[in-house]
Amino acid sequence: MSGLLEKYNDVVGEDVIGQLRELADNVGEISVVHVNSTKYGGGVAEILAKLVPMMNELGIRTSWEVIEGDEDFYQTTKSFHNALQGNIVEIPDAMLRNYERINERNAEALRDKLESADIVFIHDPQPAPLLKMTPKRKGKWVWRCHIDASRPFRPVWKYLRNFVVEYDASIFSLANFAQNLPHMQFLIPPSIDPISDKNIELPANEIKSVYKEFGIDPERPLISQISRFDRFKDPVGVIWAYKIAKKFLPGLQLILAGGDAADDPEGAAVIEEVRMAECGDPDIHILLLPPDAHRKINAIQRASDLVLQKSIREGFGLTVAEALWKHKAVIGGNTGGIRLQIFNHHTGFLVDSPEGAALRIRYLLFNRDILRQMGEKGHHFVKNNFLITRHLREYLTVILSLLHSEFSRIVIG
Ligand code: UDP
Prior knowledge:
The protein is α/β, with parallel strands linked by helices. The chain has 2 domains: 5-191 and 387-404, Rossmann fold, CATH 3.40.50.2000; 204-385, Glycogen Phosphorylase B (Rossmann fold, 3-Layer(aba) Sandwich), CATH 3.40.50. The protein is built from 16 helices and 12 strands. It has helices spanning 9-12, 14-27, 43-57, 71-84, 93-109, 111-116, 154-164, 204-214, 235-246, 267-278, 294-303, 318-325, 338-341, 354-366, 368-385, 388-403; strands at 31-36, 61-66, 119-123, 140-144, 169-172, 184-187, 222-226, 253-258, 284-288, 306-309, 330-333, 348-351. It has a 6-stranded parallel sheet. Strand 11, helix 13 and strand 12 form a beta-alpha-beta unit. Helix 12 crosses helix 15. It is globular and about 65 Å long. The two termini are 39 Å apart. Residues 42-43, 46, 198, 226-228, 257-259, 289, 297, 316-319, 322 line the site of uridine-5'-diphosphate (UDP). Uridine-5'-diphosphate binds next to helix 3, strand 8 and helix 12.
């Protein structure tokens, strides 16, 4: 034991950690494999980086595998992502065949691990076909969808569903993302790690260093959005909201920070759109941060007066929980997982347009007591609902229910 879990005692209490150990004892000596498509960037990587060591600490042999693809593969999976979140996209057959071929290659490379694992969690559509390509699997397989799949573009979902139906279970973040599937479906919202570099308390001078490093005036209000440069995150809408709000708050400053996830081929085009919208305003700071800039992001969120997450579709939005945890009110898009976290008028505001966001920015920056109260409520809301210890408990519960479900898998061959 490395004492990793005990580090959470002060945040969540010893009982919570004791309960995790009890659940893990019931799980017993099994092996678990998580598979996704990127080691850095985006919420899935953020969560697995924490969840996997914690599962190992509980005595569950857990590994995290990352599939590899070529440019066409990531182009296709980005189209899947866009289609599951409702965009109409056409994907040529050749691209689909390439997607399947790449999965076959990855299945081959991971063959031993995938065949022998007791439980396999496949994250999102990128590695979904691995199950079909592992006919001698011994364990139970779960498809974990992190995407807002409430209104998927049907032809693409129909294609992906062919792979997903064969899983033993699936996990969605929200009830209205769940699909018509012939297996158990679990609802588990994601979580943040309160003691990670991204979320830990920082000394005041480290927070202040953000002002100097990025040329921010500490005497003037600062708002920020931290997100991959993805159209669903609506960075251009954030700039419009800022510009409208600035008419009433001439000193307003904005940080838009992101990097692009390794599996996101559209990032560069979106950054271009953001630069066009910025129009040389010296109070807009567009930051392209490296994937390990966790403490810097932490400091930016803490240095902000309020935080935006103006997405138009959002599976969950870890950035919302991260900001709320730091006692910051959040103005977020009225969509998907943001609705789970922003309790409208209590932990922030849900908005449907740049104009709506601007109105709320103006209101909160002129009503500092309400801003502070919302931040306080947000912190408690996250503490009670969206910390990694709750997430881990629910994963253990899924594992237990799969291990003890009455149908065991028939191994072919
Ligand atoms: N993030 C980061 N660097 C960036 C942009 C985002 O570390 O440049 C982090 C962010 O703090 C959050 C995660 O990546 O922890 C994004 O998760 P979220 O659920 O908000 O969105 P996703 O990218 O998964 O759609």
